[in-house]
Write the structure tokens for this entry.
Amino acid sequence: MRQLSNRPTPPRPPASPRFALRAERAMLLMTPPTRERLESSELSEFDRGVAEAFAISSVVAASDPLPLRRQVDQFNPDVIIAAGGDGTVNLALQAMRAHDSLALLPLGTANDLARYLGVQRNPGFLGSFVLSAACNIDVLRVNEQRFCTTGGLGLPAEVAHRVNVVREEGRGSWLESLGARIYPVIGAECCLRTTPIYRLKIEWEDLGDGSLRAADVQTPGLFVTNQSTFARSLQVVRDADNADGVFELCIMLVRGRMPLLRLLGGWSSDEQPGPGELRVIRTRRARIVADREVRFYGDGEVLDKGSCFELGIEPSALRLLS
């Protein structure tokens, strides 16, 4: 396996202070499926809220970051409002320019980033952040694809994939009825099946002395996280911080149906796993090589598919309005 460079990671810049930002031009972003799910009255309320809150506004339905980036360049918004779930946040993240700001209107299933900001599903909030404070959080990279909440491969990716399949099958009412419980329910279903075991060769930068560390593990799955919760209700790493310049590799150490169900149940009830159940590695960069092709999910979406994943972090790279 090709070795990581021994060049140390540059020190993280000082944390960005909270500051006021006046937003005049807003782009409201939805995916086509989200727009189709909404009642016409709710859509009208969103459109009216944007028009009243900003001097100039644009409502965009998009699903591909490349044409969306062209629209962003043409419209030149002060703020992009991601109206949807974490997948819509990721779509905006892929298309945003370095200086763009992001605000959230949570319409998805988990809404992990919106929960961090304390933003509720309320079109009336659209004017509330025009003069409010902004903050910056870190952005993660996997093979140059960006994400900002939680990602992973193996079992975590399978759970995210199954939730998306349910959504695409048109079982939206079932998703709505379960709310945040959908992830533990699908997770339990996945645990009860025969869960594949993956051999992963992992290299990462030690935060203490900058040296390279390595591990060869067999695991049902691995999380890469930037905040404490996954799928709204599962707390994987209690003290994870999305503005500390590092991310967490969380390697699942248990195997078999019952141990996996106990681990999942502990996350659902805020019970921290023991050292024999989960290994947590904090780092700024890493490489994961799997023994077969796997999906890598981030922000609830497939970001890449392969057997080698280069991970890094962009400190304080995403400016959020709340």
